[in-house]
Amino acid sequence: MSEAREGGRSEVAAKSPKQTVNGSRLILAALVFVALAQGAVWAVVTAPLNGPDEEAHAAYAQYFAEAGKRPSLATGTGSLSPDLASLLGGLGTASLVGNPTGRIEWPASSAVNKALSQLPPGSSSTGSGPNAAASYPPLYYGVVAIAYHLTPGGKISDRLLAMRLVGVLLFGLTVALVWMLAAVVLAGLWPRVIAAGLVALQPKLAFTAGVINPDILIATIATGFILAAALIVCRGLNTKRVIAILALTAAAAATHPRGYFLVLPLAFVAWYSARRALASRDERGWAAAANALGILAVGALVAGVAVLIGRWGNSTPASDIREFVSYIWNFYLPRPDFFTQLGPDYGYQQVFIQTFFSGFGQIDVLPSAGFVNLVQDGVMIALIALYSTVVARWSTVRANWPIIVTLITVLVSMLLLVHLVSYRELQNNGDPIITGRYLFPAVGIYGLAAAWVMSSLPRRAGPVVGACVLSISAVLALSGIGLTALRFYG
Amino acid sequence: MARAAAIIGAAVATLAACYLLTLAPVLNAPRETIVSTPGLQGLNVLSLVPLRSGSKACTGPVVLTPEMGRVRYLVLGPQVSGDGVSVTLTGAGYQSRGKVVAAANAGPNTQLTAAFSPAVTASAIPATICIKPTKEALRLVGTDEPRSIRNAQTTVAGKPTAVDIALTMLRPTDESMRSVLADIPARISATTLGTLPTWAISLLVAIACLTALLLPIAALAWADRIDGKQR
User: Fold this and answer.
1) Whether A229 and A292 share a structural domain
2) Which among A95, A155, A189 has CB closest to B193?
3) What per-residue confidence (pLDDT) applies to A3?
4) What is the architecture, at CATH level 2, of domain B34-173?
5) Residues A226 and A150 in one domain
6) Mutation target among B33, B72, B188 for the A interface, most CBs of A within 10 A
7) Is-above-0.90 flag for pTM?
8) How many CB atoms lie within 10 A of CB A74?
9) Percent of chain B whose pLDDT exceeds 90
């Protein structure tokens, strides 16, 4: 992070001869290829319609592609069109959910093929609802509808695969965006390989890319947003960057309600840009006013959150806020006796470890508890290393506070939104709802933080440690694929 | 060159350690190998098919393939021996008889596993599996919950029961995970309804494995070399 000062650019990049640029492009292409290969394998290994809520997302996408509108949340002619229902029933994929002894009925594929060929024309357009995903905005479904229509032959199994491959392309794009983000924030080429490589080998992200689910599009959009924000904060405003960051914020909101979390970092970037512009004109009075406005905005945010908690809780506002605080504490830390438990025993390990690195299929393909503990120990070591790096390089952190605060704002905003929604769901039906893939909008920060820690090690040690970490990630990625293949087929 | 060697050496050592400590024991240990599950026990609803001694329960069409050599079913109650239970598999031009070779408690129930021969020689035969206790009555476990119903509708004495009995088709012997993984591309190919041939899936998996293991490390070594030249 040494070169990410305002208006600055990586010294290495500034001096890059053409050969270096070509080498850099080839390396990026290699990492994107790794991501595409991982995503493509997940798209074929995951049993049809066995991604998280994939049945509802696929039905939404099909109906959107066929009828040009969203299905209904509560009414309609059927949740699934006859061809989706035939595939689902014939291969027995619905019955696999939560039933670890079940396997996909691949020997029945000939019968399924025959049943599909006997369906009457127009049977693809009848899944008008009820659909549990119907309340989601249509952007993702509009994107996959293109693949749906472009699929040669029009067989439903091929169309599902084509729609899954859209996510794989988005995964490749996400890796490229992380590479560009690392180029803005970190010095040197090899830390970029760590940042983008860790994202390309993130097993749960690759899995999410290989199924029909809007979460991969949110991850791509949010990574693009972070890149645009980093460019604005590190190199200044220009028209392209402003249009990009506004369009990406709007796109996130048009993809999923969770996409609204980008509004808060957008507000920070806007505030910081205004403050910097005023400071550069030596308008101290206005700059001080901007600072005061920033403090007021943070206060308004805290008050707004408190009001929401008070509205969603079942008691007085004061006790609801106390309950929310105890919920957050219990989520991340061991529960003291004086805190009540809201909902099931579900927290950091389940979200940040178990379902961030695994939890494939419908979150029911999980490695052994011993394996999860091993990964948790590794993550704990990484967090200690991050903390140590912050302490050791405090002067660098202070000098680069705008980009660091931008990244922290993205993280905090994302976590605040999912915790608020989780708190509300716990009040309503006892379901904590949060899962590891909800963290993917910040996956670029995950890669960036790891790369920064390694680039802060002595010059000779950094790439060697990076090689070890990338290798462990590759093992995690391939183990996930093997585990899932065995769960559905072996 | 020395730096590249250090990067590659670190990667190889890490991969070797991961393989030896976590993957090798799992990959090489023999395990029961499920080929298919034409009937499931329900997730929330267990249903029973009671059979008196001498009465026979038969499934609807179950696709048999050459890989199958054992059939497993579930009986209510612990420690059921399975003695005197006859299992027959009948399809077009194919008939075999099964013999209970293993009984194991599974919660409150007993899993009975019957080995059958001869093996199926055609690529796939729709067949009926019939279970008939000859010594004492037993109750087969299955389900009638809609989400878990598959294509094996059970009949007793020719009358439909609206219940699927839990059935698992296994390979004749236990095999290592490594050998099971080799069979999976063909099964994935079947679920794409023939769009992706087995060789294409095998190739894709091979590319994904090799690129995940090799490309990031090669990229890291190369990037480090470029960085080194610019210093």
Assistant:
1) yes
2) A155
3) 44
4) Sandwich (2.60)
5) no
6) B188
7) yes
8) 8
9) 62
